[in-house]
Amino acid sequence: MTEHTTGIEIAWQQKLDGGEFVIQQCGECQRHVFFPREVCPHCGADALGWVAPAGLGTVYAVTTVRRAAEAGGDYNVSLIDLDEGVRLMSRVEGVDPADVTIGLRVKARVAKQDERGVLLFDRAEGDAP
Amino acid sequence: MSPNLTALRGSVAIAGVGTFGCGKTPGFSDMELLAGAAKQAVAEAGLTMQDIDGICTASVSAPMWPMPVIEHLGIRPTFIDGTMLGGSSFIAHLMPAMLALQSGQCNAVLVCYGSAQRSSTMNRREISKTRRMLDPQPYEHPYEPMLPPSAYALSASRHMHEFGTTREQLAEVAVAARQWAQLNPTAYDRAPMTIDDVLNARMISDPLTVRDCCLVTDGGGAYVLVRADRAKDMPQKPVYVLGNGTACWNRQISSMHDVTTTATVDSGRAAFAMAGMTPGDIQVAQLYDAFTINTILFLEDLGFCKKGEGGAFVANGAIAPGGRLPVNTNGGGLSWGHPGMYGIFALIEAVRQLRGECGDRQVAGVQTALAHGNGGTLSSQSTAILGTADTL
Q: What is the CATH number of domain B3-119+215-391?
């Protein structure tokens, strides 16, 4: 559906490098898809196009990776369910890793890491949808 | 279940098993550890390497691994399977091997594996860095999950949240494995260990401490499969393959629809259907315990208890020696040893229990056993149900 001049993996990363976070939506079954791929994993249609999600989500599963303080200290790794119904891995920042708990509402932010765009999350203000 | 699959029940037997160099064995390559185990398995079956005309093998490092194995062993196989699904591979190899034996494509299949993971001169940080380059996961690696532990930690966190599973219940799995290991002179870690020792150990990726994680050891494992009619006249008591099923739904932990339910639901259902059995018929279970949460997930997904009740199922020593269900009777990946891809060792322990060779850890009167392999990060699953002649 979408015309690509590169594969979708590079296309997605380039958008992220430019500060834009997108996911895919299927033109046939209308379901959202992440990570980006070539065929809708729900209905098999070749009809995936980019859409901008609202960026709000909920922490679904959580771990703190333990790391020596001199190497940067402990950090969070979370699985986050976006309100559009897709799941992805990310890091919740601005909160002590021990305070990132399942059910926490979070909001997406595009940051730079090693000079590439990276999708991170912050605690969201307000209540569950 | 196709009647053609059901007809395979009991058609093939394991005629020999071997383990070699398990624990800490510096100075041996992956291939040498594999070959040591292969020699033992073939000799146990009363065969020579030249009798082997089917091969199944896989390596974490070498994608074309069947070729150097064939070359090293000096065989000319007519059946070759290099299916690589991670740690479940050597249980997943059962079905294609059975089909090849039944069709007459070959007459004796060697399934074999070796890993110098602990003693390899290339350090594990280097290996992991190289693997990230050769096999990138662009949607997970930027967040630096410590893989594999963090993937299993994410599953454990969700299991605790949804079902009230506790860290003490996870620790029960590690302590049970250790108690079995104390009955097994070949186990790598046999030191006494309590629930508190597990809880107070160094945290790796919450909620998993180092004692919730498997060991890192060297070792080789192998087994030989032949048609059942032939196995009757061979030196070892035959162990029959009653059922086998393999399933994979995803690779990345972030792609699981529900991180507390694995593809074991499908692999187990297929294996039990083929065997015509239910979990209540199983006398010993060898469940790939890369992490303590695995044992709980697989007990649930195989149907030994309901989803969410695995924590309560393992409590109070229920899977330890003397408990209601003997699980991981060799000490498992947590205490016996874990040479990279453990599935073959779960199957070998099931065979040894069914032959009655297990000494102090032998479960009395075992006629049926289940061996379950896991691969990747809760990604691929393969279940085997094995039995003695009385179960045919």
A: 3.40.47.10
